[in-house]
Amino acid sequence: MSTSDDESTTPHVFYKDRPEWQDVQPIPSDEGPSPVVAIDYSEQFADVYNYIRGVINTGELSRRVLSLTCDAIGLNAANYTVWQLRRDVLEAIGVPKLIDESGLDKEFEKEFTFCEKMIENIQKNYQVWHHQKALVSWAVGYDESTKTMQVKNPEALDILFKRELQLTKDILSYDAKNYHAWQHRQWILSIFKDYSGELEYVNQLLTDDVRNNSAWNQRYFVFTSMQDFSQESLTEELNAVWEFVKVALCNESPWSYLRGLIRLAGDCRPTLQKEVVARCKPFVSKKEGTSVPMLGLYIEFIDDLLRNGEPDPEEFAEVVCLLEHMIKTIDPIRAKYWDYIMTKFVNAHGDSELDKFTKVEINA
Amino acid sequence: MAASLSTDIILPNAPPDLLLPKHAGFLSKYGTAKDDYDYCMTEFLRMSGMYWGLTALQLMDRLDSVPKEDVVAFVQDCFHEGTGGFSPAKDHDPHLLYSLSAIQILAMYDEFKAVDCSKVVEFVQSLQQPDGSFFGDKYGEVDIRFSFCAVATLALMKKLDAIDTRKAADFILSCQNFDGGFGSKPGSESHAGLIYCAVGTLSILKEIDRIDGDALGWWLCERQLKSGGFNGRPEKLPDVCYSWWVLASLTILGRGDWIDQKALIKFILSCQDVSTGGFADRPGDVADPFHTLFGLGALSILGYEDETTVKLKKINPVFCMSQEVIDSLGIEVQILPGGGAC
Ligand SMILES: [Zn+2]
């Protein structure tokens, strides 16, 4: 560990025994007489937090408080009051500075490193990510209300953009589903307004684990940020996604993704739905172990196509038969759901299908 | 690559019966060992811990096993006159999360008079943003959970008119994803706990009909695994707390019967700790009040009953409180017309 004053480690000397802290009045936790809530701290915990309360009471915002918050955070990183105190100190002593093409100011850089280390240690703590967000906002002069940055120099911005993408990438390499890391990454992409490399990253994650639902979510985030929902663009995406679909047919995420993707389509929606139905056909089976999410989407698309297009008695009969198997053998734990889909399907198409079937016969 | 088998568990053979007296003992003793490390480390969520434990006791009709005066005094101690918010424990900052827990506790005891509720209303009101979302506290993080806390807190006090409810609902809808679910803010991955917050908020605001119950209902149903338990996201392990988040959401959507209720009951009962009492997230793990409340809450929705135990009280799927309390306050929530019996 570094010896610098704002990165001190667990203290060997109690604050109450440190001469340089004699001027601060420690304030013990007053939990009152209630037996339901009495708290008995460990000695060191109590010592540090007594001094935290002490400096909050006097409003002191100084370098030694910065170092005190470091110890307090080390003992309990989930205490948001202490993090806020740390940010108040940073601002008061002028640490945050706008980034330029040579990078972050030296002292501010140390605060970034401190927070990044904390993030690595406690990856799912909300406070550390919140702190990182505050640091980035300071470094680029980001204004949440106008969604604008004070820093305009592309070189300077690029340094921070890459740094934050790398940080989240590192954390996601430990746990590819870390909710905080994904949120931070999305926030970074949206404030820097640069999604150009993200699809490549998502493809990499899906190649590593095609079942990574967080990566599928990110794929949608990236795709919609491009704002191109033309038939060409959607078809290209369908083709790309199909490569992942084939790898694990039973995996629900890509099927949800396809449902969402095709909902973005305008007039070309039936064309795309037909395409998906045709691609599913070879995999449709009535045996246990078949892909339930695939069949769910398959049935839903056929239902939509029948509602908006030509009746098809054969397709109708096929879906009814498939649904019977869903209820009885393929997915009995969700039998009530499939019952409901069956009723909806038959109500929508049953009678009219029969009518049209009769008409076809008469015409013939 | 993650194999799908690794994302479920195998249940022990026969689940134990529902051990209500053990659970009551577990909860009333919990937190009395105040010198233990865990107690110290969880100080930052003490208020919510109290709400979980007390609500679970109330469902078992054992609320009287904890001295009411002590609880109300604790809640009063955590009230910040200046801001109108509640902190998780004394000397912490007020936050919407703990303000909801505090108001839920006061509602259980019919003790709103213990604090200046007009201040609480102002606190909640002050945190709404122009887009309808809510900050959790003055430090400005936005999360759909805070929308639920804000709206539920005001609803319990009958003060929903203090905020822009239409915009609050609009923000919730902006968090809906392509799979029908909701994440904590726009673009964030769907998660069963956050879906509960979204659906609960819309239900209180009587705007639940703005969502497609079939699409979301299906995603929620897909959370049930072969073991009978629910996970919170695809490819995650089952956990008792998701029994509550998923089942309560499905119930609000009028689709609680879309899942295999018998299998779910078996999973929940298997998560009881037969020696200490209480429920753990999964069979064999350490029990805690959080999972105990959500295990009991789900069993209450399911109307679980066996010949050896007293029946659990009915729980309200939106507020996660005894229905009696919600009725006595005269609060009605909106439930979507059923998708089961069409
Ligand atoms: Zn859990």
TrEMBL record, chain A:
Belongs to the protein prenyltransferase subunit alpha family. The keyword RNA-binding does not apply. Pfam families: PPTA. Residues 1-33 are annotated as: Disordered. This is Protein farnesyltransferase/geranylgeranyltransferase type-1 subunit alpha. The keyword Magnesium applies. Keywords: Magnesium, Prenyltransferase, Repeat, Transferase. PANTHER family: PROTEIN FARNESYLTRANSFERASE ALPHA SUBUNIT/RAB GERANYLGERANYL TRANSFERASE ALPHA SUBUNIT, PROTEIN FARNESYLTRANSFERASE_GERANYLGERANYLTRANSFERASE TYPE-1 SUBUNIT ALPHA. It is an enzyme of class 2 (transferase). PROSITE patterns: PFTA. Its EC number is 2.5.1.58, 2.5.1.59. Its cofactor is Mg(2+).
TrEMBL record, chain B:
It comes from the Eukaryota. InterPro entries: PGGT1B-like, Prenyltrans, Ptb1, Terpenoid_cyclase/PrenylTrfase. It is an enzyme of class 2 (transferase). Its cofactor is Zn(2+). Its EC number is 2.5.1.60. Residues 20-321 form the Prenyltransferase alpha-alpha toroid domain. Keywords: Metal-binding, Prenyltransferase, Repeat, Transferase, Zinc. Gene3D superfamilies: 1.50.10.20. It catalyses: geranylgeranyl diphosphate + L-cysteinyl-[protein] = S-geranylgeranyl-L-cysteinyl-[protein] + diphosphate. SUPFAM superfamilies: Terpenoid cyclases/Protein prenyltransferases. Binds 1 zinc ion per subunit. Signal peptide: none annotated. Catalyzes the transfer of a geranylgeranyl moiety from geranylgeranyl diphosphate to both cysteines of proteins with the C-terminal sequence -XXCC, -XCXC and -CCXX. Belongs to the protein prenyltransferase subunit beta family. This is Geranylgeranyl transferase type-2 subunit beta.
